[in-house]
């Protein structure tokens, strides 16, 4: 079982099959310096590989979910000759983190407690669902600092809102408030800030008690179908159906259905 982290810039809590990853730099609005990104690479990989973790929640402390790259560190590195660390961070940190969030074979929820900007917005969009506090919002702030988008924004933003709206939000960044985010499809659900943790936790526990391998196959199939032909997508569906049909959970669920009982899933 994964060991929890109870201090530092990234916290990890484990309970009832749910791994909650909390960005914990409230004084810096949970911006991502190199140290934080290196821990986040390891933590996301660890929970992805842990069979006891059946759902993952990503959230933040304080008034921000995550404001993306730590620009204070960024400026310091530019001024002290550390620019090589800046221009390798997408390859070393952002890409591995977002790939793990998108590709792990278990559901991932973002509990967006405050502003999600730049790479922080990208991280939230990489999750299956975004439960958003009423006072939170999204800002695709890349062009403000004359940078392209990263951390999967080019993939996930247009899937959620469509190509034209995605380019508008990237070209003309602004904070999209929670209510508008819900209308656009950036938010799955908007809730009062005081109930965010409880509602995200309840959803995560429900998913953690479900057929984990079936959820993972669904994630993979939906992601694959977004960029492949009908024939190729149907072939992957066939493979995933065969794979989940051979699971213990499927056998137990069929037996429970015949017996008119509620199935108990074990994620196997």
Task: Give a structural overview.
This protein is α/β, with parallel strands linked by helices and 268 residues long. The protein folds into 2 domains: 10-208, 2-enoyl-CoA Hydratase, Chain A, domain 1; 212-258. Helix content is 49%, strand content 16%. The protein is built from 12 helices and 10 strands. The protein has helices at residues 34-49, 71-79, 83-86, 89-103, 119-125, 153-161, 163-171, 178-184, 196-208, 212-225, 230-245, 248-258; strands spanning 10-15, 18-23, 55-60, 64-66, 108-112, 115-117, 129-133, 137-139, 176-177, 189-191. It has a 6-stranded mixed β-sheet, sandwiched between helices. It has a 4-stranded mixed β-sheet with strand order 4-6-8-9. A hairpin with a 2-residue loop joins β1 and β2 (18-23). α10 (212-225) runs antiparallel to α11. The mean pLDDT is 94. GO terms for molecular function: catalytic activity. InterPro entries: ClpP/crotonase-like_dom_sf, Enoyl-CoA_hyd/isom_CS, Enoyl-CoA_hydra/iso, Enoyl-CoA_hydra_C. It holds the Pfam family ECH_1.
């Amino acid at each position: 079982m994964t060991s929890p982290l109870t201090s530092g810039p990234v916290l990890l809590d484990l309970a009832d099959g749910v791994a909650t990853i909390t960005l914990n730099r409230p004084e810096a609005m949970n911006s991502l310096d190199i140290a934080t990104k290196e821990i986040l690479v390891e933590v996301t990989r660890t929970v992805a590989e842990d069979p006891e973790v059946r759902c993952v929640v990503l959230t933040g402390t304080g008034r921000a979910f995550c404001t993306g790259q730590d620009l204070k560190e960024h400026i310091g590195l530019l001024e002290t000759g550390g620019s090589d660390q800046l221009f390798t961070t997408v390859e070393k940190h952002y890409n591995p983190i977002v790939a793990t969030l998108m590709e792990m074979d278990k559901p991932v929820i973002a509990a967006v407690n405050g502003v999600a900007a730049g790479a922080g917005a990208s991280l939230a969009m990489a999750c299956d669902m975004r439960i958003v506090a009423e006072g939170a919002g999204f800002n695709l702030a890349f062009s403000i600092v004359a940078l392209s988008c990263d951390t999967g924004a080019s993939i996930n933003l247009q899937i959620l809102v469509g190509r034209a709206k995605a380019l508008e939000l990237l070209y003309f960044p602004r904070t999209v408030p929670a209510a508008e985010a819900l209308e656009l499809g950036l938010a799955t659900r908007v809730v009062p800030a005081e109930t965010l943790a409880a509602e995200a936790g309840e959803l995560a526990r429900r998913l953690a008690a479900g057929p984990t391998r079936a959820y993972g196959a669904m994630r993979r199939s939906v992601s694959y179908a977004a960029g492949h032909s009908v024939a190729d997508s149907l072939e992957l569906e066939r493979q995933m159906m065969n794979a989940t049909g051979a699971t213990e959970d499927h056998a137990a669920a069929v037996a429970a259905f015949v017996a008119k009982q509620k199935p108990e899933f074990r994620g196997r």
